[in-house]
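Changelog-adjacent note: as of this version, every example in the card shows the full chain rather than a window. The one below runs 451 residues end to end.
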Amino acid sequence: MTHKESETIEFKKSTAELKEAVISVVAMLNKHGHGEIYFGIDEHDKVVGMTIGRMTIKEVTQAVVDNTEPKVYPKVEARKIEGKDCIVVEAKGNNGPYFAYGRAYLRVGESNKAMSPQELEERILEKRKFLWDKEVSEKTLTDVNEEAVKEFMRKAKTAKRVDFEFVDVKTTLHKLHLLEGNHLLRAAEVLFCDDNPLEVQAAIFAGTDKLTFLDIKSFKGNLFSLRQQAEVYVNGNIKWRAEIKSGPRKEIPEIPVEAIREAVGNSLCHRDYSNPKGNEVAIFKDRIEIYNPGLFPKEINPEDFFTGHEKSILRNPLIAETMYKSKDIERWGSGIKRIHDECVAAGVKVEFNRLKTGFVVVFYRPKWEEGKGLAEGLAEGGQKSKVKSKVKSRVKVIEMIAQNPSVTIPEIAAALDMSIPGIEKIIRSLKEEKRLRRIGPDKGGHWEISG
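Full-length structure tokens:
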């Protein structure tokens, strides 16, 4: 027998323990959303088998269905394990809290614990928050940014995660399940309306606390725009080093940009939208914090996702589904693992911390040697100040485009006090790196930042 008892697996010697098994089913669902019960295996993990009659499977199924609320409809089947007859019950569900015989239970290790009234109340309140993105919005179709919808569809088609073309805003949102009749859902409001409750506060602090800040900004807009603005802000205010060994120069950030991208995307996707507090990006001398006003589920730990086996609990399923289609988030439940893996590969320390008011991802900034930050790896005779200037100019160009995708090259040149050929060279380089592309003609078109 390869399985062992755990928070999602339990063994029972026979169906004489059917009531205890039903309790275990709801305890597992309340904790993890899935669970398995094996009948025919004793408490020492030994397969003893059992007699399976003509009505046994039906009786087991009926016991689960009749004694759970909301109703749990399990998969129950006879299975040969080590050559002996056993029954396996598999259950899934995220419509909790689930009750068995009138009480709610929670899985703790290999045991089942009755939930207290306070725990039950917290669960019910949390469940209500999870329905926010399915509520009808006060915004109308005229409030939707059509260009944002078109850009979303372009990315979704490129990712091959939608099988229909853009016709108009209403048809597209209907096919994305973001409308109820002719009314926008709240998910559509934050995804595609520029005027919405979303806000990201971003700041740079002089030290390791919030006593003195060097810069502070407030970003508004639709979710996709906010994500881009927040990413550009972080990437433009971290250290980069230029490495030249053979071939073209390679610019390396102190914190992996993909990890930052995941953290910002997850913070917007999984935040508690019923909470008026905004998302925050805080850049300190020793660390960067990405804060999300959404409590992390109590029943699991962030570290559980490092293996990639834990399943995500979606606070905003419509928002998550839409962001997945455009590849703005990857496979559900993989965000924390991706952040962790990127940082491990780069030798960057990262923490995932629960707070009383939300959840924060903390990236600890590596201590690069003085003089090796932006200029490490320069060819002999190279000028460090020039490398630093080039990197900063590229960041400023990206930042301007993120704030105004319709900005023109002459406008960028004037704002940055640079020559038009200089801006054209930077943009050409960004295009070659596939970090920037032009959508539409020079007049009337706009820029798109890819990463």
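Structural remarks: Residues 370-385 have pLDDT under 50 and may be disordered.
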